[in-house]
Design brief:
This protein is mainly alpha-helical. It has a domain of about 90 residues. The protein starts with a helix and ends with a helix. The relative contact order is 0.08.
Length: about 140
């Protein structure tokens, strides 16, 4: 009898803890009106995409991905990274309200954006190595 009640309580608490993040939403006045909310959202998305690219490379090196899957996934996420970097540039220009910089932004080459992606990936790799203790 006691074990049945204890088991029920453990299952109920576990279920509550699993479901809580799915149904709980936190709204604050700052999150709805803050101009930084777009920047923060874009930064989180950028970090997620770069982390995904890094993990794709890691999985490929660990032979968990075929050559075709690796190329397709990497190309897909590189395209997303380029879009995010362009959005970041546009958002920065909107905040600065400088139209001359807008013309200059569109003159950037894909090579420069790819180099920026590679720099971000290298920083993530170094961070992963320090976090895992691998040098």
């Amino acid at each position: 009898m006691f074990t049945g009640i204890a088991l029920f309580l453990i299952l109920a608490i576990t279920g509550y803890l699993v479901i809580l993040p799915l149904v709980r939403r936190e709204y604050t006045a700052d999150s709805c009106t803050s101009p930084d909310s777009d920047e923060e959202s874009l930064e989180r998305t950028k970090e997620a995409v770069f982390t995904t690219i890094n993990e794709i490379e890691f999985d490929y090196k660990m032979k968990k991905l075929s050559d075709d899957d690796y190329r397709n996934l990497k190309q897909q996420y590189k395209q997303k990274a380029l879009e995010i970097l362009n959005e970041e540039d546009e958002l920065e220009l909107e905040l600065n309200h400088d139209e001359d910089e807008l013309d200059f932004m569109y003159e950037d080459t894909e090579l420069e954006l790819t180099e920026e992606i590679e720099r971000e990936l290298e920083a993530l790799r170094r961070q992963r190595q320090t976090n895992t203790g691998v040098i």
